[in-house]
Design a protein that fits this description.
- This protein is an alpha/beta fold.
- The chain contains 14 helices and twelve strands.
- The chain has helices at 11-15, 36-48, 78-85, 103-113, 130-135, 140-151, 168-171, 201-213, 232-243, 254-266, 271-282, 290-293, 298-301, 308-316, and strands at residues 27-31, 52-57, 70-73, 90-93, 117-119, 158-163, 179-180, 185-189, 196-198, 221-224, 228-230, 248-252.
- The strands form three sheets. It has a seven-stranded parallel sheet with strand order 3-2-1-4-5-6-10, sandwiched between helices. The protein has a three-stranded mixed sheet with strand order 7-8-12.
- β1 (27-31), α2 and β2 (52-57) form a beta-alpha-beta unit.
Length: 321
């Protein structure tokens, strides 16, 4: 497989918004800050102490935030979005899949509001892989969003898309990548020996903060990050070691999971969604092994080291990463 392309604007376009500035991003607004990934990103940005942080939410949202966090309400009309985004240096989107289609209108509003940097809701699956977007037509919206973002470079808006693979610590609670820490059950696919890249939620937050702190080095490109690379069998070994128990193991193939998942999802059964996600992350040809199929940006961003053994031990002890 050819290495995944990194998309850059011309050198002139890429550097223009940040020329001769060492720290140009100060005001940051987060969209989707109360979601699973969004909450971790929001926490990392706030905890860094480097930014003035705001949240964009809909009028009906009941989510609450700490004192000092400005909440901007928007009905997602163009006027209200532009008004909410004025004065912001960067927009960090962590919208869920159901709201992916909203991102293009937010991007357009960001351009009109004079925003310098936009981080789309990438993370998770590799949207640069054609097999991945074909399996999940909904994720094809990400391709359209990224194309639209690239078209805004000439208007002064820069962007960074972070690809992080499945959220390992969060996923263990629900059977993502085949493991459920609550029931101690494991579903092993295709013999369990295929490597894939995965990130803890805290590492995703670390990556977002690093991008915001290094705007010139990260402008107009896809950046691939992870906490570690592992196989299902390696993960199972560590989980059984840390829990001191043998897990209940079932074996299947990603092809069978794809067939079943598509049939269930077509009927509106969202259990099919989990099966399809496992195909994306564990199957061959979906671009989930970043160290092999892309260039990891961990070193470039200065991300902390995380590994499988310490991650599993921490999670089994009931602690957060």
């Amino acid at each position: 497989m050819n290495k995944l392309r990194t998309f850059f604007s011309s050198k002139k376009d890429r550097k223009a918004p940040f020329a001769n500035m060492t720290q140009t991003i100060k005001n940051v607004i987060v969209i989707g800050a109360s979601g699973n990934i969004g909450a971790s990103i929001f926490k990392a940005i706030v905890d860094s102490g480097k930014f003035n942080v705001s949240v964009l939410s809909r009028p009906e949202s009941t989510a609450t935030y700490a004192a000092g966090i400005k909440v901007m309400k928007s009905d997602y009309s163009e006027v209200s979005l532009v008004d909410a985004l004025k004065g912001q240096d960067a927009v960090v989107s962590a919208l869920g899949a159901a709201s992916f289609a909203e991102e293009i209108k937010i991007i357009d509003a960001a351009v009109k509001a004079g925003v310098k940097r936009f981080l789309p809701s990438e993370y998770g699956s590799n949207s640069q892989n054609a097999n991945a977007t074909a399996l999940f037509p909904l994720f094809g919206i990400k391709v359209q969003t990224n194309k639209h973002l690239k078209a805004q470079e000439s208007k002064g808006l820069t962007w960074t898309a972070i690809e992080s693979g499945p959220a390992f610590d969060w996923g263990l609670q629900m059977g993502l990548v085949g493991f459920n820490i609550n029931t101690k059950e494991a579903a092993i696919f295709d013999d369990g020996n295929r490597k894939f890249s995965t990130s803890n939620l805290s590492q995703v937050g670390n990556a977002v903060v690093a991008v915001l702190l290094k705007p010139e080095e990260t402008a107009n490109q896809f950046i691939y990050i992870d906490s570690f690379t592992a196989t299902q069998n390696e993960i199972l070994t560590e989980l059984e070691k840390a829990t001191g128990e043998k897990w209940k193991v079932t074996e299947s193939t990603t092809e069978a999971a794809k067939t079943e998942g598509q049939a269930l999802f077509a009927k509106g059964d969202f259990s099919g969604l989990l099966l399809l996600l496992n195909v994306l992350f564990l199957g061959e040809g979906y671009g989930s092994y970043f160290a092999k199929e892309a260039v990891l940006g961990n070193e470039k961003l200065g991300l902390p080291k995380q590994d499988l053994v310490s991650t599993v031990a921490t999670l089994v002890a009931g602690k957060s990463i």
